[in-house]
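Contributing: when you submit paired examples, paste them exactly as shown. First protein:
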Amino acid sequence: MSPAAGGVAWGLPAGIVASDIEFISLWTLVAALVISAAGIVALRLLARRSIQVMVAGVVLVCLFTSMAGVAIIAVRMLSGINKDVVLDLMAIAGLSGVIVALIVGRQLIRASRSISAAVQSVGDSGIYVAPAQILPAELAELSGALTVAYDRLAQARSRERALEASRRELVAWVSHDLRTPLAGLRAMSEALEDQVVTDPREISQYHTQIRREVERLTLMIDDLFELSRIHAGALRLSRRMVGLEDVVAEVVASAEPVARAKGVRLTGAAIRGIPVFVDPAEMGRALRNLVTNAIRHTPSDGIVDVLAEVQRGVACVSVSDACGGIPRADLPRVFDVAFRGESARTPGPAEGAGLGLSIARGIVEAHSGQIAVRNAGPGCQFLVRLPLSRPGAAVLTPSVPWPEASRAAGPGHHRAVSAN
């Protein structure tokens, strides 16, 4: 009889027929499906249990499926002692697999518990110390991510504490600074209301003083509003391409009357062709705060110099005064809220709430720039650095001063202003 007629597949070993293959395949498939279904149900029931139990469950499913297939083969193809030997070997292999699964699961549990202990030990310090033991790749990656996350959280907490301290200081300073003009306004208004002052000249003086105090309060409130927008990240910039020399010229021209009234000589110079992408109004306010602060702290007959140039591919504006310098210990605090560099909290009649430099820093940083201060010459120098829109567009050459603030220089590379 031909192999085809006898129902035997081609290429089968001697003694094995197609019916054996069909029997083994069918029952192995049935056993695999049953064991897999039972394993899936068991793993879902054990979803909240330890990793060790779940790993052991996965291993048992694989072992039982393999053992079932081998058992079916043994029952179908073997007999006598051979069958017993195969079953004994299957039992030994299954026991070994379970032991290995339990060991692996225990190692995973130990690693996860070490990470959990490290997280719980963070406490108020906010410092996460990674476990010293060797971790599996995934858990090591998780530990590294926790380290980065806690570092960022610590930085955020530090910034929040600094901001909260700054807010408390601001409230303390501003509440004091607001009380002083308000007390004066109340006293003068009561004097006018009760007709304590009847002389027309005195009444006119009271009205003038009331107007000045109101203007001062308005400026302080404007500064508070600007600073609150900066701290809240709500500062909206209307950026456009401008020449930095134009911004500097406008600032110096607007500050000229203040300098002349105090007897301070205000000079300024700027290289032509320094393109920057900024909000002209906000950047002008920042530079104006720096110039006004320099004039306020410079004695009569002193000089305040404003220079705009390009240094190492960056647009730079420096404001130098003759204030006599800032104590080294106070330099890091110059841009802090309400810092005036003096122990007395009561500002002078022309001073604000000490927010000008803080506002300048916020505006400069909002433009992706940097602001710094250092002692130089007879006073100190504030330096603002801004990115150029086209690096290398300007070329540094010696400054040429202008005689007048409102007049543009003739041909050349510079515009400058001078106020006596």
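Second protein:
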Amino acid sequence: MSTWFDKLLRIAKKSELVKKTYQNVISSFVQTHVGEITPMQPRPSQHNGLRFNLLVPSINKEHLFGGISTALKFFERLVPSGVEKRIILTDAAPGEDDLQTFTEYKLLTCDSDETHLSLIVPFSDRYQKTIPVRANDVFITTAWWTAYGAQRIVEWQSRHYNQDPKPIIYFIQDYEPCFYPWSSQSVLAESTYKYTGPQIGVFNTSLLRDYVLRLGYRFTETYSFEPQLNSELLRHLKQANLKNKKRKILIYGRPSVPRNAFTLIMEALRIWAWKNESFRQWEILSVGEKHSDIEIGNGIIVRSKGKMTLSEYAAQLTEASVGVSLMISPHPSYPPLEMAHFGMMVITNSFQNKDLSEWHDNIVSIQDLTPMKIAEQLEELCLRFERDHYIGLTGQTRIHSYLQENDLFPFVKNIIKNYVV
């Protein structure tokens, strides 16, 4: 049988038809485009009033959290009352349900040049299509590919209207070149920081700002804002009874997001599970993204709760005593801070200039991030809780503004002076 199959294979290799079929199949899987940089072709607008444009991937409900939510808050805070604003969606068009929280906005296609105080324009399906751009359009960018597109629009705007390039506002929430291996996307993401036109960098935390600036990138102006506890979580925290902590570990489990190091956490949990027979009394919940429940040994199962409502999340934060939340980037991420303020002892990681143990007493920041180091630290925190069930309630915050509902973006008045006289 094996001899017959080998003979058949030798004959097939000599066949031009087989070779051509093989090459066609391989070619069909070869990527020849970088989808993120599908051109955003501008065209002249018939109008000339000042308008602020937010380029954001999506406002669909399933995406309306975290970075996109923060960018929208910044946009609403930035644009002065009575000035036109437009949200341009680069990756996904919204459905009727998605628009329910955008009642002041009018939905238009890119074909229209209609004016309105607040517009939403889907522009994900943009092949051989254009979008109207005024001489006085100002662009606020978010994810790197929106910055890439806006930088080229502004260059066109400058040439077409014979004017100096308007400063782009780049809302930067992480160092995105490292979202990819060394690749086309990584160098294109980095190129947006090397833009030679006027560009204002607005950074999600001073940690991220300092990291990016230390790499040598330069911006016309830079601003940063610091994290604050979500207002609904703050309301739950004020009402919570944190004295009923349980033998419960929360992990921030997002298998699809490499920088959250899900597999590293799982490897650590397997080591931890076999360290002490009493650990079988502990419950482990994974929050953030739904995945299958995972048996890690010694009868212990990591149960996935996935993405929860803020009320459900607050209930888990109230009961849990230990947390593990990793972020392999210069951004601090919010879960370790949320966990710490709800009286949990938390394991996270340091990264370059980031050390969250300086932000709260309840946070342990591991420098040598290996499964064994995480497991050892997890064992220590669990044993500390066994000795004192109130241990996490004594931890103090060192970033006092975190629990205050202050203006996140007090610096917008300094930015707006570039556009409004």
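If you have annotations for the second protein, write them as plain sentences, like these:
The first strand starts at residue 41 and ends at 44.
The two ends are 84 Å apart (CA to CA).
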